[in-house]
């Protein structure tokens, strides 16, 4: 509950809320204040847990009405967490702790609501912790692998580059998609060592290929929003370029709109510093965020990567076609190259060619491949 604390009116309101809670429960139930703005309601001898739902609803309804206090009109709200005996705990301490967890869940879900503590909740929290601990070890145990997805020139269909995409080769679960762990890595900060590993491994692999005499191509590597905020990012990238003797002009860093827009000059400074290393910059998943054209024009971006959601709807959805064509035209005017992601059909590729899109990437041309398979494809040098 929230109200103007540190004010005598706060005390009055607490009393009023306490009285109000008492009217929402039965004679034999208990209402207590734990401290601060936290109350506990103990409902005994429940025939059915649904009764707790009824009481929770009643309490929220009562709380969210306007309270008149000494000429002030106050609106309070509440978040309720419910634990039940014996499913959620055999003793008072466990029951209270679990009710507390459920209350935080209901706060997260938007206040003025209630949540039950359930085994489900504990399980998902535990799974997350396990995943996090395992992911932490995955880097040390070298369980991460890179796959490479070819990027082709739309007109000739020849490979001009590749995007490095990370996978987790889990000892029990097999190859795990980045969609399952990048978000968690981002939240926990693990993305920093992970991202550094990706960049280093990709450049190292590139160097090996060059030593084997494979033709040069542009190597694209994803940079997460958190990496982008990292203080010593520029120094880190430079150190990796040096360590792997990576030609800077063949490295392209992909950054999403969200990571740079809204950060104003700061983002521009970082982009300029990265660019001064001699590498290329691409905006990934373009069209899904909110890019300000004014910023875009002032940022040193080389490539716009049209988000795959637009390709998905081509040629069925005229809206998607208009957007894709507009992005291509815009990139032209801003002197940027443009690459379409998620190209799965010949119609889509023909559409892109008609509108003058430079490059394409997608299952039609090739799925992401293990390093050896990609090298084989590159060695053959065929059009895809
Ligand atoms: P992204 O950077 O936009 O990468 C493109 C994703 O689209 C890849 O998914 C790729 O396999 C998939 N894709 C390519 N062609 C097609 C197609 O024709 N149809 C469809 N439906 N999908 C296609 P993936 O490898 O699962 O990666 C998903 C996302 O995970 C990436 O999206 C990127 O945001 C993130 N990610 C992957 N590797 C890294 C990494 O090393 N670092 C960071 N920060 N993020 C990464
Ligand atoms: Mg990408
Ligand atoms: Mg993308």
Characteristic terms for this protein:
single chain; 384 residues; alpha/beta; Alpha-Beta Plaits; TIM Barrel; 2 domains; eight-stranded mixed beta barrel; two-stranded antiparallel sheet; 21% strand; elongated; disordered N terminus; binds ligand C2E; binds magnesium ion
Annotate the secondary structure layout:
Blueprint lengths: L7 H17 L5 E6 L2 E5 L7 H14 L2 E4 L2 E4 L3 E4 L9 H17 L4 E4 L2 H22 L3 E10 L5 E12 L3 E3 L1 H11 L2 H21 L6 E5 L2 H5 L3 H11 L7 E6 H4 L3 H12 L4 E7 L6 H6 L4 E4 L1 H5 L5 H16 L3 E4 L5 H9 L4 E2 L8 E2 H10 L4
Parallel strand pairs: 5-6, 8-10, 10-11, 11-12, 12-13, 13-14, 14-15
Antiparallel strand pairs: 1-2, 3-4, 7-8, 7-15, 7-16, 8-9
The structure holds ligand C2E and magnesium ion (2 copies).
Fold and architecture overview:
With 384 residues, this protein is α/β, with parallel strands linked by helices. It has 2 domains: 7-130, Reverse transcriptase/Diguanylate cyclase domain (Alpha-Beta Plaits, 2-Layer Sandwich); 132-380, EAL domain (TIM Barrel, Alpha-Beta Barrel). Helices cover 47% and strands 21% of the residues. It has 15 helices and 16 strands. The chain has helices at residues 8-24, 50-63, 92-108, 119-140, 178-188, 191-211, 225-229, 233-243, 257-260, 264-275, 293-298, 308-312, 318-333, 346-354, 371-380, and strands at residues 30-35, 38-42, 66-69, 72-75, 79-82, 113-116, 144-153, 159-170, 174-176, 218-222, 251-256, 280-286, 303-306, 337-340, 359-360, 369-370. The strands form 4 sheets. Strands 7-8-10-11-12-13-14-15 form an 8-stranded mixed barrel, surrounded by 4 helices. A two-stranded antiparallel ribbon has the order 1-2. β12, α11 (293-298) and β13 (303-306) form a beta-alpha-beta unit. α1 (8-24) packs antiparallel against α2, α4 (119-140) crosses α5 (178-188) and α6 (191-211) packs parallel to α8. The radius of gyration is 28 Å and the shape is elongated. Residues 1-5 have low confidence and may be disordered. Bound molecules: ligand C2E and magnesium ion (2 copies). Ligand C2E is lined by residues 149, 165-166, 177-179, 182, 195, 198, 222, 224, 254, 284-285, 308, 341-344, 361-363, 368.
């Amino acid at each position: 509950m929230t109200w103007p604390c540190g004010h005598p009116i706060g005390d009055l309101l607490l009393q009023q809320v306490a009285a109000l809670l008492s009217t929402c429960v039965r004679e034999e139930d208990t209402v207590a204040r734990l401290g601060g703005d936290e109350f506990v309601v103990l409902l005994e001898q429940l025939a059915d847990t649904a009764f707790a739902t009824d009481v929770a609803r009643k309490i929220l309804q009562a709380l969210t009405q306007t309270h008149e206090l000494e000429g002030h009109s106050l609106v309070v709200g509440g978040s309720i967490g419910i634990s039940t005996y014996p499913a959620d705990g055999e003793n008072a301490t466990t029951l209270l702790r679990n009710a507390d967890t459920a209350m935080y869940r209901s706060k997260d879900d938007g206040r003025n609501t209630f949540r039950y503590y359930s085994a489900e909740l504990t399980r998902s929290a535990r799974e997350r912790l396990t995943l996090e601990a395992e992911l932490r070890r995955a880097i040390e145990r070298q369980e991460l692998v890179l796959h490479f997805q070819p990027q082709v020139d739309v007109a000739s269909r020849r490979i001009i580059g590749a995007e490095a995409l990370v996978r987790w080769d889990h000892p029990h679960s097999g190859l795990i998609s980045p969609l399952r762990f990048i978000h968690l890595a981002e939240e926990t900060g693990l993305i920093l060592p992970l991202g550094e590993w990706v960049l280093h491994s990709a450049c190292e692999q590139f160097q090996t290929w060059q030593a084997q005499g494979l033709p040069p191509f542009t190597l694209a590597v994803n940079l997460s929003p958190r990496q982008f905020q990292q203080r010593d990012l520029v120094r880190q990238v430079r150190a990796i370029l040096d360590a792997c003797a990576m030609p800077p002009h063949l490295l392209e860093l992909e950054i999403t709109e969200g990571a740079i827009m809204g950060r104003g000059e700061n983002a521009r400074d970082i982009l300029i510093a990265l660019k001064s290393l001699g590498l290329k910059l691409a905006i990934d998943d373009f069209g899904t965020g909110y890019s300000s054209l004014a910023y875009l024009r002032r940022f040193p971006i080389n490539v716009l990567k049209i988000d795959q959601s637009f390709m998905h709807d081509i040629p069925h959805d005229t809206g998607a076609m208009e957007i894709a064509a507009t992005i291509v035209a815009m990139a032209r005017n801003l002197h940027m190259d443009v690459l379409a992601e998620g190209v799965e059909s010949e119609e889509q590729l023909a559409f892109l060619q008609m509108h003058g899109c430079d490059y394409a990437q997608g299952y039609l041309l090739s799925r992401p491949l293990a390093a050896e398979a990609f090298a084989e494809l590159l060695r053959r040098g065929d059009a895809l």
